[in-house]
């Protein structure tokens, strides 16, 4: 899964997300700075009992509260598509489902 978003009234916040579903590597960059990184060598990347992973941060001018959310299925999560959401100031801005 890979997506790129430009947020804000002046499109001054760039979000770049990439997840390699075969190895489990995951990276979320905001304006080129890492916000979330998961290594394929970390055991919690492959085994997890939680369905949701969230990251909240502020970015932009004026500052916006941005929430990244990843939802994984309960059963056979490694073999099924995940749902990715971006919320800006509490409102859904982007949603995508895939590997």
Description of the structure:
Strands 1-2-3-4 form a four-stranded antiparallel beta sheet, with no helix packed on it. A four-stranded antiparallel beta sheet has the order 5-6-7-8, with no helix packed on it. The chain starts with a strand and ends with a strand. It is globular. It has strands at 2-7, 13-19, 26-30, 33-38, 52-59, 64-71, 82-88, 91-98. The mean pLDDT is 90. It is mostly beta strands and 99 residues long.
What characteristics describe this protein?
single chain; mainly beta; about 100 residues
How many strand units? 8
What is the tally of helical segments? 0
Which series of helices and strands comes N to C?
EEEEEEEE
Please outline the major beta sheet.
4 strands, antiparallel
Proportion of residues in helical segments: under 10%
Mean pLDDT: 90
Low confidence ranges: none
Distance between the first and last residues' Cα = 5 Å
Strand order of the largest sheet: 1-2-3-4
Round the Cα radius of gyration to an integer and report it: 14 Å
Helix/strand/pairing category: mainly beta
What does the overall shape look like? globular
Strand percentage lies at over 45%
Topology:
Layout: E1 2-7, E2 13-19, E3 26-30, E4 33-38, E5 52-59, E6 64-71, E7 82-88, E8 91-98
Antiparallel strand pairs: 1-2, 2-3, 3-4, 5-6, 6-7, 7-8
């Amino acid at each position: 899964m890979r997506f790129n978003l430009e947020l804000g009234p002046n499109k001054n916040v760039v979000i770049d997300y990439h997840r390699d579903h075969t190895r489990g590597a995951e990276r979320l960059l905001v304006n080129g700075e890492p916000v979330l990184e998961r290594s394929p060598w970390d055991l919690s990347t492959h085994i997890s009992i939680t369905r949701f992973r969230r990251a909240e941060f502020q970015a932009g001018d004026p500052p916006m509260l941005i929430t990244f959310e990843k939802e994984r299925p309960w059963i056979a999560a490694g073999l099924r598509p995940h749902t990715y959401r971006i919320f800006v100031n509490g409102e859904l801005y982007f949603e995508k489902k895939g590997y």
